Structures are given as C-alpha cells and as structure tokens.
Amino acid sequence: MKKQLEKLLAEAYAAPEPKKKQAFLMNLKPREVSLPEMLWQQAAYVRWPVWLFAICMMAFAIGGSILHLEDTERIVTVLMPFTAAISVLETNRSTRFGMSEIEMATRFSLRSVLFARMTILGILYAVMLCVSAPMLAYAFGGKLLLTATRILIPYLSTMILSLIAERSALGRKTGYSSAAIAALISLVTFWISQEQSQKFMVLRYTTLLENWGILIVLVLLLLTILEQQKTIRQVEAFA
Amino acid sequence: MKLAVDRITKQYKNKIAVDRISFSLSEGVTGLLGANGAGKTTLLRMMAGILEPTGGEITADDIPVQTENYRALLGYLPQDFGYYPEFTARDFVRYVAALKGIEKKKAWKKTDELLELVGLSEVANKKIRTFSGGMKQRVGIAQALVNDPKILILDEPTAGLDPKERVRFRNLIAEVGKNTIVLFSTHIVSDVEHIASHLLMMRDGQIIYDGKWDESQGDLEKFYMEEFE
Amino acid sequence: MDLENAYDKIYRYAYFRLKNQELAEDITQETFLRFISSYGNLQEYDMRYLYSIAKNLCIDEYRRVKPDPLPEEDEARAAQNIGSTEETAIVRVALSKLPVEDQELLLLRHVNGESVGTIGKALGLSRFAVYRRLKDAEEALRKGLEVSGS
Q1: Residue B158 in contact with residue B133, Cβ under 8 Å?
Q2: Which residues of A152-182 are buried (b: 16+ CB within 10 A; e: fewer)?
Q3: Which of B37, B118, B180, B181 has the fewest beta carbons under 10 Å from its own?
Q4: Which CATH number is associated with domain C84-150?
C-alpha cells in the first residue's frame, strides 16, 4: 500500500487525544525498586542519633589520635559495645514499635527491610573502623591488626549477645536487654584492658590478641552473621 | 478482580485458629463479623500475606498471596499497630509509601491528599504520639490507601473512632469500595449494616454465613445474635 | 516499544470500534488492567493479547449500548479538528462502505503497523487468512476510492 494512502488512513482512523492516558500509565507501571535504592531509602529512616553516635566515635578516635590523648584507644574500645547495641536496637525497631505488620504488608518483605538496615549499619561501622583503627594504630604506635581486633572483639560480642537477647521473649518484653549487655561487655572490656587485671589472667590480653586475635575475630564475625540470619529468619512471613 | 480464599487453614500447636475456610470476594465492601477469638485476625493476617497458612491458598486473579505482585495490590490496616516515636502523621504515610515502592514525588502528593481525606491535614506535621486513638486509626487508614490498593484489608478499622469519625470512615470506605475489594472485620454490627453489601460471619475458625446483606433481610443485629446463640 | 505506544494503539482500536472518546478510553484502561490481572504485570505485555482483550470488551460494550445506536461521528473528534481535510473525508467514506472486519484489518495493519502474525493471533485467524483478507480489503478500498472519483 502506498505511503500516501497510509497517511490518509492514519488520519481517517485518528482518534481524539486521550485525556486520562498519563495518569493511568503513571499508576500502571509497577516501579522496580533496586537494592541500592532500597538501601538508600532505609538509610533515610535510620535515626539521627545513630549517625551522630557513629560520627562522634569516629571524631573522637581521630581527634584523640591527632592530639595523642593517652586513653583514646581504650575509650574507643570500651564504647564499642554501645555502638553494637545501638545497631541491634535500630534493626529491631519494627517489632519494638509495632510497625512490623504494616511493613510486612508492603512491597518488600520485612526480612528485606531488616536486611537492608543491617547492611546500612554494617557499612557505617565498617567505615568507622577503617578510619579509626589505622589512626589509632599510627598515633599510638600499635600494630594495625592488633588495634582492629581490640576494637572489634567487644563490638562483635555485644552484637551476638544482643541479637540473641532481642529475639528472646524476655528481651522483647524489657527492651533494655541490649543496653544491659553493652554495659556488661563494656565493663569487662574495661577490666581486661587495665594493667593490674593482667595478673588474674592466664595469658596477657595483648599476648592473646597477638596470637589468636584474628582467629577470634573471624569466629565472632561468623557467629554474628549466623545470629543476624536467625533474626531475619525469625520474622514470620512469606518469602 | 476476584480474591479467592481456598480451604485456608491455620493451625497452632493444639488449636485450629482458622479451619478450612473458602470464599471469594469481588469489588465492593465485605464485612467480617465475629466475636473476639473467632479467628478473624488470623484470617486477615493470612490474607495480607504476613502469616503463612498451614494449608490452603489465597489468590487475587491467580496471583498468589506470597508474591510481590500481590503485595503491590494490597492495602492493610492491622488490628494493633505502632509507629516510630519520632514520626509525624505525614512521616508515617510517606514511610509506608516508600516501602510500597511509590516514587517520591507521587508519594508526597498522595500522602497529602490522603491526610486531607481522613481529615488530618491540619495536624499532618504533629507527632503521632500526641494523637487520640481515633486520629491514630485514621493515620492507619491513610497508610493503607497510599498505593491505591485493589485489595484493602482492614482489621477492626472502627476501633477507637468516635461517632463522627465512624460516619466519615463509612463514607470513605463506601467510596473506595466502588472499585476495590474491601474486607473489614468488626464486632460491631452497625458498622456492617451501613456499608457492607456482602457479609461473612465467623465463629470458632469457621465461616458460618457467607452471603449478601441488605436491610430488606431484616434486623442484622437480631440475625447476628441468633447465629451466635 | 513502550507502554505509551501500546496505549495509543489500543485506544485507537477501541475508538474505531466505539466512536466515543470516553468509552474508548475506559475500554483501553480496562484492557490493560485485565492483562495485568491475568499475567501479573506489564513487564512483558503482548499486543496480541491486548488486542484480543480489547476486542472482546468492545463487543460487550457494543451489545450493552446497542439500543442506542452508536454515532457515526464523535463530537470530540470534530471539535479537535482531526482528519477534516477533504481527502481524509473521502477515505473515510470509502472505509465506511467496507465491512467492519475489513476496516479492522486495515487499521491494525496500516495504521497501527502490526505484523500479519500479530493480527492473526489477536483476531483468532490464521496468517494466511489475514493475508488474504487484507489483500481483499485493500483492493475493496482502492475500488471504493476510484468510485468516489479521486
């Protein structure tokens, strides 16, 4: 068929401009939400005290290192359990504040929301560690790995215990179990790091870390991941 | 659209909360009536895809309940819900919109429209914790509607509403029900009487009445009492 | 091909069937919604099914409003000054003399630009049948245009 006739046909069949097309199409397209977008979205809902705490810790570590404040490393280590507790509490906000049912009925399952939060906080604290540990190690002449393990051990221990506690019936009822665990671990860490405590121990803490530190951290990391998985899986829902 | 519940069962260790229930719903408002403990909430939670049934299937035009596509069609108001303490009414609805994958600009617009619709636009920026029970419930209704759901499941939506709010709610639901499958549970007979055209009655995990309801059939209150005697 | 394009095609088709802007648009939207409810989403929509859904909806609609015969011309189109040249008017008259099935084929093939295969699936015809009928329709249209003396 000739081009010209096709053009005439098109005109003959032309319909008036549809009126509701755009509105309809906008509604129609089920928007795909990518993982980075979802992480970003959840990050926007992480409360500011969490960011603030992380930033303060980092600022303290950096500042203390630059100014050579003597106890910087020990203070950072002792405060680490609280960072862990905060991140566990932040992850578990849905159940704590009764938002989980509404969140579960959205496009994403609550599991993926939890996962997203854990990932965001994980990234946040990893950044914090990557900045603080080398600064501290450099400033106080320690070995980088030793400093990192010193910081990580109390952090990860608190993570593991808090995750277990928050899942338990008792933990869910009280709501302060994570804080209590953090305080306890913090105290223990403080005690261990005291010079005079060393005589009560079979092995000096530092010696222990030097020999076994990396292994301990790896085991704790593995346990943390397992506990996080359990927490995610515990959410009763589809998929 | 047809929402089909097929032999759905939920069994806890030694108790059957929902016992092989089947029914189907289409556009319009359906009331789910039953005493406390009849299994209404368990049924609705399974229909909202947040509780896994022990057996049976739920589909919306063949889309299974456990898929993201189903959840994309869904609006759900749980019986009890909380809110993050720092949330304002607006934050709350926007947050749910974000989780429902609605693009930001549209979500913000929709949020304001809905808050207006439920009569909360004046207090949109006030913290939810300063709200009365009825106001909080209205926020809940707004969040359920934010994605223009095709299936709207409301668990005891009139709980905590005062008489004026109740009337407003009924009008809203009647409007939404024109092109949406609305299922709401209640134990207040007059809620159903005024807006539902379809009625389900539940007792001991089973549906004991599934049918049309209109005022010509007489006094629902009486009927309800008789059924439950 | 994007969704908007598909919307235009289905809308044009529905408008051809019903000659009413509002109805045509409602049918178009209903077509997409039905498609979604059967196939879950529009990620991989298929013109063939969209046409066949639209066709059935139009037929139902036509039956429903039959007592009140559909107008030959819709005011909305006249108001928007669409296809108002003399030449178009001649084509339109020639078209209106053809059976509606022929008009449908010409629209799908030459305006919406669908392949013979797609048209066949949409209308439930074999490729061969589409091909043959299309030839006949083109021939009939040509004759009609000659008669009207262009």
Answers
A1: no
A2: bbbbbbbbbbbbbbbeeeebeeeeebbbebb
A3: B37
A4: 1.10.10.10
Domain boundaries, chain C: 1-82, 84-150
ipTM over 0.95: no
**Residue that is written with structure tokens 């006030």 in the block:** B126
Mean pLDDT, residues B8-17:
89
The predicted-structure confidence for A52-104, as pLDDT tens digits, reads as follows: 888 888 888 888 888 877 788 888 888 888 888 888 888 778 877 888 888 88
The token pair at B46 is 């399974």
In the sheet with B3-12, reading across from the earlier edge strand, the strands are B15-25, B3-12, B55-60, B63-64
- Domain limits, chain B: 3-228
Lowest mean per-residue pLDDT among B31-40, B109-118, C1-10, C88-97? C1-10
Tell me B5's DSSP state: E
Q: How far apart, in Å, are the Cα atoms of B149 and each of A139, A225, B143?
A: 58, 36, 11
Task: Tell me which residue in C3, C4, C80 faces A17 most closely, judged by beta carbons.
Answer: C80
In Å, how far is A156's CA from the nearest CA of chain C? Answer: 43
Task: Residues B3-228: name the CATH superfamily.
Answer: P-loop containing nucleotide triphosphate hydrolases (3.40.50.300)
- Could you report the per-residue pLDDT of A171-188, keeping only the tens digit for each? 666 667 888 898 999 988
> Which chains border B (3 or more CB–CB pairs < 8 Å)?
A, C
Neighboring chain B residues of C37 at a CB cutoff of 8 Å: 1, 60-63
CA distance A106 to chain B (A): 5
pLDDT tens per residue across span B25-71: 988 999 999 888 889 999 999 999 888 899 999 998 778 888 877 88
C14/C32 Cα distance (integer angstroms): 12
Other Cβ atoms closer than 10 A to A52: 10
